[in-house]
Amino acid sequence: AMSLGYAGFVGHGMLAGAVAGEVFASPSAEAVLAAIRTLTGPKGCLIILMNYTGDRLHFGLAAEQAKAEGLKVEMVCVGEDVAIDSPGLAGRRGLAGTALVLKVAGATAAAGGTLAEVAAAAQAMADNIATLGVALRVCTLPGKAASDRLKDGEIEIGLGIHGEPGIEKTQGMSARDLTQRMLNKIASSSFFKLQEGERVVLLVNNLGASMALEMGCVTQAALTALQHTHKVVVERCLVGPFVTSLDMAGMSLTLMRVPPGAEGDAILAKLDYPVNAAGWPNTNAKVVPIAILPVPKGSSSSLDVATHRPASVSAEGLGLEAAIRAASDALIRDQEALNALDAKVGDGDCGDTVSHGANAILAELGTTYPLNDVAGTVAALARSVRQAVGGTSGALYDVALTAAAASLRESLPGGAGGAGPAAWAGALRAGASAVSKYGGARAGSRTMLDALLPAVAALEQAAAQGLNGVEAAEAAAAAAAAGAEATKEMAANAGRASYVPAEVLRSVPDPGAMAVAAWMAAVASSVKASA
Known about the structure:
By secondary structure, the protein is an alpha/beta fold. 48% of the residues lie in helices and 12% in strands.
């Protein structure tokens, strides 16, 4: 078999050759004829091409010339685009489903099939596939200016692989909603009616510049929708850059109908047939059910407390609630500012991380926190962070809050109320020590500790001097702010910032330390307002 522009699919078990033209242009009939003459043996040659007018003309002319020379040549034209329900004389465009046609045809040929049998297998596949594409950014031709057809936040559904406009532009949506919309369009198209209980193959095609994460999201959404909404049996799932369009940020979904019984099993065996073509992933594409097991509960500990709001909240509990709410609001407010700092010295997500944790805390603060139990409330904070926040920051806050809760449980009568500056100083000292122990950082490492440790020292000094809660909180907040500002001049030796050149770090404070300073200041303001 031979096709156009599919050099990656040339190899045993797939294509014998591929003919390419200029970018997005058909090869000349002369080039196609040269390939036919070179590759055609006694059994003949099958040409497989996508349905575009130029390709049909040039390949068709070459095929007719080859036949006139006495060569056996057949041609299968693939057009499976469902974007336009009534495409007119031009017919449906060929898209990524062509890769499945090539695979089945190649396996048929490798098994010793005749030219007629290989052509029939290819045509049968071409008649039972449907594809729809979507792009977030259209492709850019080499040497040409980037297209401005799509604005930020827009997507285009139903466009072709050469960048041809699609059937509609719309605002961006989640992978789940977009995938469901595309599958509904495919399943209800005039020439591909999907029925419950049918067997299908799913191909999720990367059009060139989509990230693996995006492809994974789309694949998961597509499998879920096909199995649970459309109620079909997905026999195989193939994911990757099968038919690309330069740097187009987008993907296409292809469904291939699989006949029931032995006939369908034979087709699946051809898809599974191993090949040495570089562009075909020789991986197990079988779809198997995944067992989802419940998460086992851990054993009880002294920090386990009631997970509900007390019927009557004490004055101390209300003050604690107000301080936690103020701290959370401050982190949410500063999300973008912290992200901007982190983008200069890290991976740009510090604000997202702490804001996500703050939102998780606010979602549970009014209903599940035992506010009359100070140690229990701090343990509840750790639990909220643990369940909602990943990454290094999430783990560090979790370990700090857990250690602080244990300290409060030990220092307070019954671990409940009456937490003054000394108790809070001890709790924060325990939290900072745990962060240093498990995170590896210490004072001067340009981390959150460079704001937290000065705050702890100020709180301890305030307690020793007998200052009240408002004075102690304000002193701690001021020390945290000064410590965070001082990180501008520090060299990083822990965290991702340790990989950043020193000249980049200068004049940029550590975002983790700035986050500590932000919630410390919010707590001080709340304590003063509640006094």
